[in-house]
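debug: dumping io for the single-chain case to check the tokenizer round-trip. Nothing else runs in this session.
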Amino acid sequence: MHKDEIFQYLDFTCYFDLQNIPVPSNQDSIIHYLIEDGIILKQDNGFYAITNMGAILFAKSLLSFDRLSRKALRIIQYDGNNKLLIKKESTENTGYAAGFEGIMKYIDALLPSEEIIGEATRNKKNIYPIVAVRETIANALIHQDLSVSGTGPIVEIFDNGTGMSYEDLAEKYVLIGKNKREKVIRQTYHRGLQIHFDPRAYLHTL
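debug: decoded output
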């Protein structure tokens, strides 16, 4: 793809914001940063390709990437504890890093909570600490096997528990009651996580 197209597919401002780096004033400087950190590749023909890592973290929409479109996060809230009764369902199509804060705000609003009434105040207290929820979801997203193309991550919220799973896979994360590329991922996810796939693989070569 031409370098102008990269900005149509990737939320590059999020990339710089998460690393506390001012957004460069020209395209060539932005491209330089993205190449250095393995977000994109420059090919021998002068065109560019977005890597798996770049897309899964910073895509404006994962639907733009055929190999990753099923990796969009689904969030399902059930009525009570019955999986047949869905109260709310949402699919978050942005890249995981680009959309993570919005995802967590949405999930936080759905989590089971209790109201604490003080002398002059009313406060909401989640049954599950949001820090634990955040860590569980982030780790589940990053530790999925991207070579399995037909599955996607799901957050399931019940009245008596919250879980993270993958479609058609037995692997499950559950909350019960109470080198340079690695540096980029830590900064991006804040967070000490690892990407378990080849970040140099091509996605787009338009």
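debug: round-trip ok. Residues 80 and 162 are 12 Å apart (CA to CA).
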